[in-house]
Request: fold
Amino acid sequence: MNQSPYYFLTNTDIEIWNNSLDCDCEVDECISNHKLCALCKKVIIFNSYEACQPTSQYKWNIDHIIPKSRFNELTNYANLRNIYNVNDKKNKQITHVICNKIKGDEFNPNFENGFGFINNTNI
Reply:
């Protein structure tokens, strides 16, 4: 698929991208095109958004830190993080699709990313 991620992402999604962990590699377009996965801390490439590059090893999506399926159960933790709605941008982070699948619906309140570190050997 040759469409830009801008075709699929909302303004809030773009804001989540912009506020994500910066990459500091030596590639010229790094500042605007690279971020780091919130779970494995490896490079994510903007144009590899999963709807645009579904077969890329760098494909990414937006993860709910406190999982949608468990939000009601974990409301106390959400409130501690000043998150009052499952889709609040404070409850979202960019991750590789594979990292998001590994995290699943787990939540560990001891980590800012809601899970901990994933050793992603696929990237």
